[in-house]
Here is the input.
Amino acid sequence: MRILLHRADGKTEPWIKDFAKYLPDADIEIWHAGEKCQACDYAVVWSPPEAMLAELATVKAIFVTGAGVDALLKFGDALPRHIPIIRLEDAGMAVQMAEYVTHAVLRYFRRFDEYEAQARAGQWAPLPQHHKEDFSVGVLGMGVLGTRVLEALAPFGFPLRGWSRTGKSLNGVQTFHGADGLDTFLRGTRVLVCLLPLTPDTSNIMDRANMHKLPEGAYIINVARGAHFAEPDLLALVKSGHIAAATLDVFRNEPLPAQHPFWQEQRITITPHISALTLRRESVQQIADNIRKTEAGEPVAGLVDRTLGY
Ligand code: NDP
Ligand code: OXD
Here is the structure.
């Protein structure tokens, strides 16, 4: 079996070693522009260049080394629809996401962001505590990662809310779904966590009107994709105080350009798309397992629905 591998960072050796361990029968071929893969069965990619599309059109399945597939689906029908696309499900990302979001929520709830600013200014000034009953945390997207985040937050006693496309039931979480449920979800959410996939339906979902539905003094934590939010409107709402602060891990343009105004706004905390990193060994193990299942004609976890876009 031949697997075509593309790594934008060029660091292919460790992936080859892990594939040798978890799928010893496979030959790994590194993609090079202009070279044809001779009878490649599968492709393993994250954000492939357009020049790779012809090769991707001939494999039995494409495995994505991430949870989101927007960097692949942006090619639309240039990528034949009959080729299965299989993303990572969890593969060590869910616990990282739970750590990141829990940290960000507690930082705001316990006002550590304000104490950090005070300490930098040499100020000693205890602030009134936020009330937990007013500190509802709402997660947009109750999939693999959103559910894990809600479960991690449960022991702290915040009122928890979740929004998804289809109806869900999760212990201790007030759930909402569909376009009809979004308004009520947003109006009662003090800390908004975005964990949606980026699709035509969710792109720009947090525009000015929807951000305005959040209560005065709301917080935003975006760990999904930059294009879920209207960045200039987010900045304006932070400056006006309607949004008290935001923690952003993802941006429309990454790396975030040096001249981007977010860098200058103290109430915006920026991290470089690290909330849940792809763990190579876990990923290769999951992909190897799914390749074995594909070969055996068994169903695989993480199969993307091309119509829904996730
Ligand atoms: P899943 O596919 O498991 O979950 C997606 C969730 O979003 C589901 O609950 C789904 O609803 C919901 N959803 C999708 N479309 C809509 C819609 N139109 N309206 C309402 N709800 C919708 O994805 P994961 O949890 O694995 O990952 C989520 C995203 O997190 C990824 O797509 C990626 O963009 C991002 N991510 C970011 C990382 C980072 O480092 N910053 C790392 C990993 C992922 P339903 O359950 O009804 O289908
Ligand atoms: C992912 C990501 O989608 O890293 O996995 O953003």
Summary: The pocket of NDP (ligand 1) is lined by residues 67-68, 93, 141-146, 163-166, 195-199, 201-202, 223-225, 249-250, 273, 275-276, 310 (CB under 6 Å). The first strand starts at residue 2 and ends at 5.
